[in-house]
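Notes continue from the previous slide.

Worked example: a multi-chain complex. Inputs as given:
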Amino acid sequence: MTTSSAIERAGARRDPAILRKRLAGYGLLSPALVLMILMLALPVLALVLMSFWTQNGFELDRSFTLDNYRQLVATSDEPTYWMGIPFPFAYPVPAILMLKSLGMSLAATVAVIAVAYPMAYFMAFRVTHNKALWIILITIPFWTSYLLRVFSWKIVLGFNGAINSGLKYLGLIDEPLEFLLYNPTAVVITLSHAWVAFAILPIYVSLEKIDRTLLEAASDLGDSRLKRFFRITLPLSAPGTIAASLLVFIPTVGDYVTPALVGGPGGTMIGSLVQDLFLKQNNAPMGAAVSIVMMLIIAFLVGLFLWAIGYRKLRSRRA
Amino acid sequence: MQRIRFIDRMTQGKVSRRDMMKAASAFGVGTLVLPKMANAAEVLTCLEWGGYDSADYFQAYVDKYGAQPNFSIFAGEEDALAKVLAGFAADVMHPCNYSVARFVNAGVASEIDTSRLTHWNDIFPALQNAEGVLWDGKTVMAPADFGNSGLAYRPDLVGEDFLADPSWGIFYDEKYTGRVSMTDNEMAIIIGAMVGGMPYDEAYKLEGDALVAAAKEWGTKAVNVSRFLWTDSSEVQQAMASGEIIACYAWNDLIANLRAEGVPVEFAKTKEGSFTWFCGLTLLNTGKADEQAAYDFIDAWLSPETGKALIEGSGYGHANMKSFDIADPEAIANMGITDPVEMMKDTLVFKTPTDEVQEGFNKVWGDTKALKG
């Protein structure tokens, strides 16, 4: 920062015309800003505050304490085993569900990208007419409520559902398959379907923006189609793909509705625990602490992920 | 142009408060800022079990007020209590004999003035004075419905082993994995302990290490063996009807509904016994509606017409003695319960745990479910 620009800024602060303009800017921004503060910042602050309180029977003890967090990390000499992994915690449930949720979300994200990428590729490179129509077609699942879509998966995967009836009709099975519903796989399938459209659009945009002459140049210089894809298309579409995977991964970790409806007893996720703590165990402070820790872990993992793939480099290259 | 001018004026700070208010009210924002206008009476808000929000059960109220009250449906009393404690303003709640104390202890229940209920004198005297209806000498619940919690099974599918020796053990036997459904409730631990030989009188007040041990042994088995843990009765009824599951924890409505559809289903006479509950309406002090509306709603629930609908529609018993005079005799015979006192003699009546015990169960059961692999 040079001194001259600092002086300029100081001058600008005093100039009433610029000041007014700036205020106008904030004025136009304010609906969104007010909404963000009211609907996001304040609730999160309330959550942070609450996580330092404790629940004592029906009474909420408002004195500041780190007890909730201490409970979450307190160790025990007798580890609890879950899927063969030892969890050396006195209260291992949040840690286990956190790990499980991350695993399930990761699986859903990978599935979503695997489905969305070819679709976006097709739209960007193969569809030449009526692109808008194709985009509208992709958003059609969003015309029904999310709850209805989850319920329809219950019907598709159910005991007497579409898949089982179909297979039975074809004579491939005698007894309905029971591993389809009420387990983590059902949750991952449902989540993948629900989030695919969110992933297609950012990937599509980044593929669409690729300069076609680069592809021609690669071919002219002797790249095979496959090599061309890996050297030009994939790297240039990476920002969109990364954005899409974050868009899917972050919200699905804390999902609650999907595991509640298709997960059964084994398909619960960390969101289910938060719900249980708030609405059944009547321990809102603990629920708040679990939510905060969950947010921090996700933020850390996303940061780590972006650092590992060198997101900064990617962005500068695109610029 | 009007629009642009308004924004320009606003950014220049030249809009008067009155103009701003006029513009805001065009978007409905004004209602938040303007002094609150006199409101029509608040609508009654009731916390109810799923299925009980049908007008058949409080027709007299609808006749008087011309509309149904607002309902919020809960899956278990603890959910409803947590919701009320979190600030949900409900006027009436539908707890049961074993759970009403939680609302009293939490300080959200009011005493009911029985002289304001026209049907009170027709209630079975045994119910008027039962524990749960009376708490510390005060009437805190107007008894309305009673019935059983038992093990329902499909006689055509369940197999010889079970029929030879009916037992709640089916929910803890790996042989039946994926074929049964327990309720999503700490009863899974309590019944498990009973299968293990502990009498109900001890099992319902398990605490501390004994509770954790019982949850580890029995709760885990119930979670692993159950196809799913049911929270709403239509879900479990569908699964029983399709044959997805062959046995479940059930109330009388499951038997009545499935039989009406021609599905063979029976309550098992398990060696550990089955349970009786009675539920009713409790007046909450958190509501905003007129108290008279709450009394009218409760009174409507106690009417013999409601009893008739309850007996014929769901197979539950009703607290009003006159209900049994006007209900279809066949439905009564089908139900097999006419006198709550007789029924309670043959079965285990649910008991009220202390707050500490209940909170322990809530936590341990939540943890048990979460730990399923």
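Summary box: The two ends of chain B are 64 Å apart (CA to CA). Residues 28-39 of chain B have pLDDT under 50 and may be disordered.
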